[in-house]
Specification:
- By secondary structure, this protein is of the alpha/beta class.
- It has a single domain, classed as Metallo-beta-lactamase, Chain A.
- The chain is 30% helix and 22% strand.
- Strands 1-2-3-4-5-6-7-8 form an 8-stranded mixed beta sheet. Strands 9-10-11-12-13 form a 5-stranded mixed beta sheet, covered by helices on one side.
- The structure holds zinc ion.
- Zinc ion (ZN) binds next to loops.
- The site of zinc ion has 5 residues, from loops.
């Protein structure tokens, strides 16, 4: 079931409608598990990131509350349409801002923020500068007007079990996959996996902070779960076929980069080849990272073209 609603009549002044999105798309994947996104592929829609709500008896868990406090407030409104129970916990699957900065809205209301230890470290290193930079850009200033760093108060190293009222939620760190501080969630009774950016569905994969062997290990970990529904970090929830599609994407990108490197192409040309191979995929801008990061990786495995070596 998919519902659409507009919150434009709530508090957004007309002049900021252009910079702040106001409409969440809701997907109910279980009676007690909801996914919300602003869709699209721009910063103004959090690059299409999925936020997830897990509703238990008397408590709610929010996973990845989007890119800015304004969107955290939209999520809070969406939660209240279904339950009066408070949001007790917010969990980050990794440190990227499109998954995290909306947490301020829930922290202000008393929620505990949770993430892997390395996620917190990267948030502390990177977010103050990123937030200041965005506030200084006129076209982004309103979107990030009340954004602030939201380092989690609770961290873990290996795994964690949350009890959201009567709902059990396993939280696992699969190692460095998409980022050093990745986590995915598994709801055994609901047979639902919340993958974070271990999976992009219909979106190009962002390798900016990724480990190439790690992204494959992460998919294997997800495959081992007894889940029927996998919620990707970006794109529509689906069955395990989206894990298979992601594995094929990684293999295909690696092959494109290898052949591009061998042919002496630059990153721009290689990125264009990736976009051409996956027509219709969103977030084409991140294919630049794919070219650069995969080039680094394959450089260790593919001999440099003759004449390119200078070490004699
Ligand atoms: Zn990410």
């Amino acid at each position: 079931m998919i519902l659409h609603w507009s919150a434009q009549d709530r508090c957004w002044a007309p002049r900021i409608r252009h910079s702040v999105a106001a409409e969440l798309i809701e997907t109910r994947v279980r009676d007690n598990v909801f996914v919300w996104t602003l869709g699209g592929e721009t910063m103004q829609t959090a690059y299409g990131t999925n936020a997830v709500g897990v509703f238990g008896e008397g408590a709610v868990l929010i996973v990845d509350p989007l890119i800015t406090p304004a969107y955290g407030r939209l999520l809070a409104t969406a939660v209240r349409r279904h339950t009066a129970a408070p949001v007790r916990f917010v969990l980050f699957t990794h440190h990227h801002t499109d998954h995290t900065l909306g947490a301020a809205a829930f922290e202000d209301a008393g929620a505990a923020l949770i993430a892997h230890r390395a996620c917190r470290e990267r948030m502390e290193e990177e977010h103050p500068g990123i937030i200041a930079s965005r506030k200084a850009q006129p076209e982004l200033a309103e979107l990030f007007a009340d954004a602030r760093p939201v380092p989690p108060a609770v961290t873990f190293d290996e795994a964690l079990v949350l009890h959201i009222g009567d709902v059990e939620v396993e939280v696992w760190h699969p190692g460095w996959c998409h980022t050093p501080g990745d986590a995915f969630l598994y709801l055994p009774a609901e047979r639902v996996a919340i993958c974070g950016d271990l999976v992009f569905a219909g979106y190009h994969y962002n390798y900016e902070d990724a480990s190439l062997p790690g992204v494959r290990e992460g998919l294997r970990a997800l495959h081992s779960l007894d889940a029927d529904v996998f919620v990707p970090g970006h794109g529509a929830p689906a069955g395990s076929e989206i894990l298979q599609a992601q594995a094929i994407y990684h293999e295909t990108v690696e092959a494109i980069v290898k052949s591009g490197v061998t042919a002496g192409q630059d990153d721009g040309a290689i990125a264009a080849s990736i976009r051409k191979r996956f027509p219709g995929y969103r977030l084409g801008m991140v294919t630049q990272y794919a070219a650069a990061r995969v080039r680094e990786h394959v450089a260790k495995h593919v001999p440099a073209p003759s004449g390119a070596r200078d070490e004699g």
